[in-house]
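Thread amino acids onto this structure.
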């Protein structure tokens, strides 16, 4: 008998990790209702099928160390002949880094229909934006700065992404992904306002929750009479008043940070109520000194962080390759709080490298 498959409790997101425990971290999130995908970090991605890469329209990079950004040229190779722009969000300095990656290649055969790469540099109080135009050989155009209001740096009708700057001996971004709370009407609130359920609630969802312009919302009173149509502002207020107050699921993405008081204080403020925490755990507890020297986390650090944040699920990742034959020790050392389930990654997902002995004889007549 086949064991039933356990599904994570996400409504709109389908998370997938296209890396093993020892590979470059690579979190892929499909947003089902929108048929699009977003990607967190972009290290080695040459093993990804084109059908996986093509729906990606936004990439979030934690920092510009090679194992988190080296896949950008591969991403460009898959997208360059499409008119759809590609967005990249990253920490201070990411615009120059992406420019250096792009201008390490010749683009003399570029075409007028090639895409534009839009790079957004996230600072504490503002976001700087530059465009790299494919039809002009990815020439750079600086678009100025926009003030940051709150932590959100990107949003869609169903999902929002927030960012927090942390320290890794350089600025590094942690990301929080929040699903929008579902449209769920509280029947008691509806009755208390003297309203009756009906098709008008569908119109309210389209207008106030989904933002579909031109939708008439005519509330139905308990005696069966319809009110005049609400303007968009009134519809939004009514929608908020009738909601059950449910929370959407959330994901925290954390990699390459130092175990410092400032980082921990920021993480505690940034990551409350997580459904899933995807976090680096580069070292085992016995190598805590190495973790401190390199500004990474060890297993005892992650256990302490998990006890503070109490996520529903914990996914450790980005273990040092020095533990190639000891990766099971990581799971033995982790001690999250009761109610937190540890998710396991295989040791490797990236195919093994090809050696000389693997191809010897292919060119034999």
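Threaded sequence (365 positions):
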């Amino acid at each position: 008998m086949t064991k039933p498959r356990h599904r994570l409790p996400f409504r709109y997101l389908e998370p997938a990790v296209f890396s093993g425990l020892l590979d470059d971290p690579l979190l892929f999130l499909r947003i089902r209702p929108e048929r699009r995908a977003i990607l967190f970090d972009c290290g080695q991605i040459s093993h990804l099928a084109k059908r996986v890469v093509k729906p990606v329209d936004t990439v979030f990079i934690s920092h510009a160390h090679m194992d988190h950004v080296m896949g950008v040229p591969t991403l460009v190779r898959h997208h360059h002949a499409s008119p759809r722009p590609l967005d990249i969000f990253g920490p201070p300095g990411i615009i120059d880094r992406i420019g250096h990656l792009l201008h390490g290649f010749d683009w003399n055969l570029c075409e007028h229909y090639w895409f534009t790469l839009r790079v957004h540099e996230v600072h504490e109080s503002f976001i700087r934006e530059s465009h790299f135009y494919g039809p002009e050989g990815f020439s750079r155009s600086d678009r100025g700065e926009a003030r940051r209001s709150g932590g959100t740096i990107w949003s869609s009708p169903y999902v929002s992404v927030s960012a927090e700057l942390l320290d890794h001996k350089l600025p590094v971004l942690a990301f929080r992904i929040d699903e929008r709370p579902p449209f769920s009407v509280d029947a008691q609130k509806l009755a208390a306002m003297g309203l009756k359920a009906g098709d008008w609630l569908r119109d309210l969802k389209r207008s106030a929750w989904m933002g579909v312009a031109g939708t008439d919302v005519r509330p139905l009173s308990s005696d069966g009479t319809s009110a005049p149509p609400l303007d968009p502002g009134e519809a939004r207020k009514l929608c908020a008043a009738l909601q059950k107050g449910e929370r959407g699921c959330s994901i925290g993405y954390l990699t390459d940070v130092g175990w410092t008081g400032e980082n921990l204080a920021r993480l505690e403020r940034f990551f409350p109520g997580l459904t899933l925490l995807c976090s680096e755990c580069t070292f085992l507890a016995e190598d805590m000194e190495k973790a401190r020297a390199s500004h990474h986390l060890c297993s005892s650090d992650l256990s302490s962080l998990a006890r503070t944040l109490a996520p529903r699920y914990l996914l450790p990742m980005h273990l040092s390759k020095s533990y190639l034959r000891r990766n099971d020790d990581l799971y033995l050392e982790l001690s999250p709080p009761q109610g937190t389930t540890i998710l396991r990654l295989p040791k490797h997902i990236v195919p093994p490298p090809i050696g000389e002995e693997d191809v010897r004889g292919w060119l034999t007549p």
